[in-house]
């Protein structure tokens, strides 16, 4: 009987540690949810479940998913024992704070100032864009928190730098999309007339978050290589995803052009186009360079 095949079977202690990390993970999700409830100046339960505010629900769900995306690499940390739990708790709190700050930035970018108290007044178009940025931000944080570094100091610095660069890239991408032909927004998004454009833009932003996973994730090998790789992958990824939208317009949705979809605010073709962009980005983001 060969006992070597049982050498990798987890011990009860390892099962217990895994369960504890999952518990901390869930508690951090609950903490962000309750913190937003406390920070808003309205009754969140009433807004979501009595008034059935769909735009607000989109934003809240996107925040939760973004936080979950960001924290998943921390569940795989294997330094051992309480060190794993401490790492998850410390970085998890950092992600929580970062996502709240991202929400404030997005409020400014999509012309809905007022922070968390403005999200319940957003149109679905603004909510979809916010949701796209929050999901993409979670993917950026997820990438930044993966891999190893030579020291704790470099790990903290590289995580912060690449997370900020990734978020800046998302804001820049959203801003540039607003000037590109069919993506061009006709005005404020609070009247709901830009929902189709918002859906396509959100798809590109989430796709860009997936592509940036290639640029940011992995072990830290030096600032020059890291920054250059990020810049090249970000620019190439953004151009590729915008090109993919036009290819989908030509080959998949042949009954109407993207200009018509955006101008007529046709939601279903926009959803199909956005989903295809994300699907392509999943493939691109999975390529190991």
UniProtKB/TrEMBL annotation:
Looking up Pfam families in the UniProt record yields:
DUF350
Q: Report the membrane topology from the UniProt record.
A: Multi-pass membrane protein
Where's it found, cell-wise? Answer: Cell membrane
Q: Kindly list the residue ranges recorded as spanning the membrane.
A: 15-36, 57-82, 88-106, 127-145, 151-183, 195-216, 228-253, 265-288
Organism of this sequence: Nakamurella flavida
Q: What is this protein called?
A: DUF350 domain-containing protein
Predominant place of localization: membrane
Family the UniProt entry places it in: Belongs to the UPF0719 family.
The record's annotation in InterPro entries points to: DUF350
CC terms in the record's Gene Ontology section: plasma membrane
């Amino acid at each position: 009987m060969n006992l070597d095949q049982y050498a990798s079977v987890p011990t009860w202690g390892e099962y217990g540690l895994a369960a504890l990390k999952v518990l901390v993970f869930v508690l951090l999700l609950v903490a962000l949810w309750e913190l937003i409830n406390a920070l808003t100046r309205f009754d969140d339960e009433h807004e979501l479940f009595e008034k059935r505010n769909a735009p607000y629900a989109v934003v809240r769900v996107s925040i939760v998913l973004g936080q979950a995306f960001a924290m998943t690499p921390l569940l795989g940390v294997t330094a051992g024992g309480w060190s794993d739990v401490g790492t998850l708790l410390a970085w998890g709190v950092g992600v929580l704070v970062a996502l709240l700050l991202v929400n404030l930035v997005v409020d400014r970018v999509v012309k809905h100032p007022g922070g968390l108290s403005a999200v319940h007044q957003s149109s679905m178009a603004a909510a979809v864009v916010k949701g796209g940025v929050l999901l993409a931000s979670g993917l950026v944080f997820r990438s930044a928190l993966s891999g190893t570094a030579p020291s704790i100091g470099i790990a903290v610095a590289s995580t912060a730098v690449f997370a900020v660069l990734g978020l800046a890239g998302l804001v820049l991408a959203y801003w540039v999309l607003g000037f590109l032909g069919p993506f061009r927004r006709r005005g404020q998004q609070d009247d709901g007339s830009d929902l189709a454009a918002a859906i396509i833009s959100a798809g590109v932003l989430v796709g860009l978050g997936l592509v940036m996973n290639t640029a940011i994730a992995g072990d830290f090998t030096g600032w020059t290589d890291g920054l250059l790789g990020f810049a090249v992958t970000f620019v190439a990824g953004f151009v590729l995803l915008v090109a993919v939208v036009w290819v989908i317009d030509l080959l998949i949705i042949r009954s109407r052009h993207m200009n018509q979809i955006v101008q007529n605010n046709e939601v279903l073709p926009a959803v199909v186009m956005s989903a295809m962009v994300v699907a392509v980005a999943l493939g691109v983001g999975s390529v190991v360079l």
